[in-house]
Each structure stands twice: as structure tokens, then as C-alpha cells.
Specification:
Elements lengths: L6 H17 L1 H6 L10 H16 L7 H15 L2 H17 L8 H18 L8 H16 L5 H22 L1 H6 L4 H17 L30 E9 L1 H5 L2 H11 E8 L3 E8 L2 H8 L3 E10 H18 L7 E9 L2 H9 L4 E4 L8 H10 L2 E7 L6 H5 L8 E4 L5 H9 L7 H13 L2 E7 L4 E3 L2 E3 L4 E5 L2 E6 L2 H12 L6 E6 L5 H14 L4 E6 L7 E5 L1
Helix pairs in contact: 1-3, 1-4, 1-10, 3-4, 3-5, 4-5, 5-6, 6-7, 7-8, 7-10, 8-10, 12-13, 18-19, 20-21
Length: 545
């Protein structure tokens, strides 16, 4: 039974949640229902959660409120993609409900979960059901009900997790796209993993180190610690058990390791023992382990040297991210990737370009740092990707400058918005003009199928060309010309006067010229411009206006 969550308990919760999401990041990535190569929910949630684990690793908190506040602040700045932002909102609302509390009992814990859900729903302009919002809401509602009948937080979590799993399964019924693909919502699955991690942390389980996670017991990599380093060497290895080792008690190895170091993790099964320890005597750890069998995957790293490098790097980042004084009224930050696309943005007067886009969503902190480097009183931010808009919007309350986020969902929309800017107009006039210009753009793109799929009536084979019109599947197939032809039909390029085609990384000029000629044939009266964008993942990005 567990009736109270202490500050150290909540610290473990954050660390376990980070490790749990990290261990399942590929699973979450692969749950992306659309077969384009941008399944990044797992990466976004893992990097977001890791920001919190890093922040609390050096804390010696006295109250749950302190840990929750540090967690919420780190998640807000580290949030990546829509899934990461919603994850940060859930913890931000949780932290507000914990304000001033030294510990949490079952009832206050349930209320805090509900507070997180309320914060997330309030912040999302058009909350969609069949998502992480649904799963977290149903789970918190169950938690509140169960808290009326039990003081055992572990029992409460068992019931909460059970309800979350039911809600997760039902996301397929609430979201037609998920139902067609036969998968549940990836973000919702991520929240189930977080709830399970809470239970594991409060049950006293040891943190399991996975191949994708660099977390150690206590949740932080040695390189993330800001406390005094007592033991110099982070020592990790695996013992493949010999016949003699199978008969020996692993508890003796654990006792020896605990006597010569700290942060000890010993995980064993019938064939191996996985070991992690911070110690000044790695030779003794290895020598004792040899009694149990052969050693493999040995890694010994000097934490003092790593810590020094970390401090130097953090100082450099801090100096680089200091807000510069305004030298002009207006400035621009945009997100993009590809030398050609960056060149276009530079030509249009963009002050800072944050590297990112599909498969590489920048964090709120990345965008905030670019805003701070922009020497302007008012900074317009153009995300150029629907999965980056929410992260960009979080910077509005974090910067001491006036931040205006234009909700651009593609590179072509970003370019059009910049062209509509008037340096002599007021902020709201420019906001309206830039937004209207972006909405007037017809956007198309051609990429490739990341896997075999059945989607929206299309049978898709891995590696085929995929054409998207306004982010919706237009056509697919092995013939580039046929796929492009159908895309231009759906974009109705013949009704437009100016068309830009950015061709991407690795695209042959002859293929790009063919696509341009095909477009010109479809729209004989339009000006069709072909530019080397250099963008990854997407062979062609097309705008028509």
C-alpha cells in the first residue's frame, strides 16, 4: 500500500516516465497511421520527457510542489511537436494543482491528474477526441472516482491505468483515420506508458535501462548531474553467466558494488546480469563480476571529464541564448531545412532560421532562443509545419519580446506570408495580411511511402511516390509523372498565376525539369519557377497562388 507521494517519489515518477517513453519511442513512432516518413511521436515525447528528467536529476527537493514546478518548466521549454506540447500541458496543470503541497495523498493526486487534463483542454483550440486528450481525461475521471473509496495510490493507479487502456482501445472508434489503419492513437499510448511508469516508480521497482535510454537509476545520465561527483567512473557491463555463476547469489555482487560506489543497478535473468555502478574502483567491480561468467559490452566513462565538458557547453549555450536588444521594430524567425529554402528565407529578410521540419521538430526552447537572438521589438514566428505550431505558441509567454505566431503549415505558406509583410503597417495589420496570404496558398508535396499500407481507399506499397494536396493523400504509385499529374489536377494549378516548385535533396535535375514542364503544361498561363530547395524527405514542395 502507498498512501503518500513524497518529493523524492515524484522525482522518481518523472525519471521513470522519461525512461519508459524512451524505451518505447520506436513503438510510438511506428504507430503513425499515415505512411509518409515522418512518424516522430515517439521521438518528440521522449525528448520532451527527457528535458524534465534532466531538470530534476540534481534536485534535492523538500516538497512535491518543487519537483512538479521544475518538471513543468522543463517540459514547457523542451516540448517538441504537438504530442510533446500536450504532454507538457498535462504536467503543467498537474503542477498548478500541487502548488504549495509538501506531499500528495490519493485524493490530491487524482485532483492533480484532473488539473492536468483541464489545462490541456483549455490550451488546445479545437480539442480532438480519439487522442491523448481523450485517454488522459478518461483516466483522470476514473482516478477521481476511485480516490473517494481508497487511500491506496497504487490501487488508484491500477484502476486508472485499466481505464486508460480501455480509452486507448476506443480511440480507434472515435477517430475514423485510426479505425481504417487499425491502430490506436500514439500520443494516447504514450500517456498510458507514463501512468504505468508512475506505478512502477511508486512500487519501488528498479529503473530498467534500455538500449535507447541513457538514464541510470535516479533517472539521469551522469552527464546531466550538477551535484558534486563522489565517484569518478560510470561503469556498465553485462555478465554472460557460466555454469558456476548460475549457482551463485547475485545479491553478493550487488552488495559488493554498493560498498564501492553508488547508483547501483543489477538486473539479472537466467542467462545474463546487467550492471551499472558509479565507482572509483571499476577494476574491483569487473573482478567480482568475472566470478559469475564472461564480461561483454564493457563501458567505463570518466564522469568528472564529462561534467566539465557539460558545464562548458551549457555556458556556451547560455551566452548564445541571451536576448539581444532591439535594433528595429520587426523581426522574423522561421523554421526550415535545406540550403535552397534557407536561401529564400534569407533573401526575404528572415533574421533567424531554426533547423527543422518533418521528422525533426524543434523544441519550444530552440524557437525561443532564436527569438531572443532576433534584434527586434516584435518577432513574427513562422512554424511552416502543423506539428510545430503549438511549440511555437508556447514562446509567446516566455519571451520578453512581443511574439506573433503566424500559423503557417508549409514552407510555401511561410514564403507567401513573408511576401505579404508591410514594414509600415501595425502589428495586427501584418498579422491579418500574413495569415490571409498563407491561407491563399495551395500547397502540394511529393514524398515516398515509408511502409506498405491501406489508407483512405489507396493501396500503398513501400517506396512508392506519395503525393499530398493540402496534407491529404492525392495519389500514389511508382510512376512519378502520373503521381505529379494527379497532384496538379487536385491543386487546380490552371486556376493560379504563380507556381513555385522546390525540389529536394537527391532529386535529379532532369526529373525536376520534367515535373516543372508537366506543371507548365497544366497551367500554360502561370509563371512556374523551379528552385533547388535541398530539403530532406520531401522530393518536391509545391505552392500555387
Amino acid at each position: 500500500m502507498k498512501e503518500i507521494i513524497s518529493a523524492s517519489d515524484f522525482k522518481r515518477i518523472v525519471q521513470f516516465a522519461s525512461a519508459g517513453i524512451d524505451a518505447n519511442r520506436q513503438l510510438l513512432n511506428e504507430m503513425n497511421v499515415f505512411p509518409v516518413p515522418d512518424g516522430d511521436t515517439g521521438v518528440n515525447m521522449a525528448l520532451t520527457m527527457k528535458a524534465a528528467a534532466t531538470a530534476v536529476s540534481s534536485l534535492n527537493p523538500e516538497t512535491v510542489s518543487q519537483v512538479a514546478d521544475a518538471t513543468a518548466s522543463a517540459l514547457l521549454r523542451g516540448a517538441r511537436g504537438n504530442s510533446g506540447v500536450i504532454l507538457s500541458l498535462l504536467f503543467r496543470g498537474f503542477a498548478k494543482a500541487c502548488a504549495g503541497k509538501e506531499t500528495l495523498d490519493a485524493k490530491t493526486f487524482a485532483e492533480a491528474l484532473a488539473g492536468g487534463v483541464s489545462a490541456a483542454y483549455r490550451a488546445v483550440m479545437k480539442p480532438a477526441e480519439g487522442t491523448i486528450l481523450t485517454v488522459s481525461r478518461r483516466a483522470s475521471e476514473q482516478a477521481v472516482v476511485v480516490a473517494e473509496t481508497t487511500s491506496d495510490i497504487l490501487a488508484l493507479l491500477d484502476a486508472t491505468i485499466a481505464e486508460a487502456k480501455i480509452a486507448l482501445d476506443e480511440t480507434m472508434e472515435l477517430n475514423p483515420v485510426l479505425k481504417k489503419a487499425g491502430v490506436v492513437d500514439a500520443g494516447g499510448k504514450g500517456w498510458v506508458i507514463v501512468l504505468e511508469a508512475m506505478s512502477d516508480a511508486l512500487s519501488g521497482k528498479e529503473l530498467v535501462i534500455t538500449e535507447t535510454s541513457d538514464a541510470v537509476e535516479g533517472g539521469a545520465s551522469f552527464a546531466d548531474e550538477d551535484v558534486e561527483i563522489t565517484f569518478t567512473y560510470c561503469t556498465e557491463f553485462i555478465v554472460t553467466l557460466s555454469a558456476a555463476g548460475e549457482k551463485m547469489e547475485v545479491s553478493k555482487l550487488r552488495a559488493l558494488l554498493e560498498s564501492i560506489g553508488d547508483c547501483v543497478v543489477v538486473v539479472d535473468d537466467d542467462e545474463i546480469i546487467k550492471v551499472h555502478v558509479h565507482t572509483n574502483n571499476p577494476d574491483r567491480a569487473l573482478g567480482e563480476a568475472l566470478k559469475y561468467g564472461d564480461l561483454i559490452n564493457i563501458k567505463i566513462e570518466n564522469m568528472r571529464e564529462q561534467h566539465t565538458q557539460k558545464v562548458v557547453a551549457e555556458e556556451a549555450r547560455a551566452n548564445a541564448s541571451k536576448s539581444v536588444k532591439p535594433e528595429k521594430k520587426y523581426g522574423f524567425v522561421t523554421i526550415g531545412v535545406g540550403e535552397g529554402i534557407k536561401g529564400v528565407f534569407n533573401d526575404l529578410g528572415v533574421d533567424q532560421i531554426v533547423e527543422g521540419g518533418q521528422t525533426m521538430n524543434p523544441s519550444t526552447q530552440d524557437i525561443l532562443a532564436a527569438i531572443d537572438k532576433t534584434p527586434a521589438e516584435v518577432v513574427f514566428v513562422l512554424p511552416n509545419n502543423k506539428n510545430i505550431i503549438m511549440a511555437a505558441q508556447q514562446t509567446i509567454d516566455l519571451s520578453d519580446k512581443q511574439v506573433v505566431v503566424i500559423g503557417t503549415k508549409s514552407i510555401p505558406q511561410g514564403v507567401s506570408a513573408l511576401l505579404a509583410f508591410n514594414p509600415d503597417a501595425e502589428v495586427e495589420e501584418n498579422r491579418e495580411a500574413m495569415t490571409a496570404a498563407a491561407e491563399n496558398v495551395r500547397s502540394g508535396s511529393i514524398t515516398y511511402a515509408a511502409r506498405d499500407s491501406e489508407f483512405d481507399g489507396h493501396t500503398i506499397a513501400s517506396g512508392e511516390y506519395l503525393a499530398l494536396c493540402e496534407s491529404k493523400l492525392s495519389s500514389n504509385g511508382a510512376d512519378l509523372e502520373a503521381v505529379a499529374d494527379e497532384l496538379f489536377n487536385q491543386m487546380k494549378v490552371e486556376e493560379t498565376g504563380f507556381i513555385t516548385i522546390f525540389y529536394g535533396e537527391g532529386v535529379e535535375e532532369a526529373d525536376a525539369a520534367m515535373v516543372q514542364a508537366l506543371c507548365q503544361k497544366k497551367a500554360p498561363d502561370a509563371e512556374v519557377m523551379l528552385l533547388d530547395g535541398g530539403q530532406p524527405v520531401y522530393y518536391y514542395l509545391i505552392s500555387a497562388e
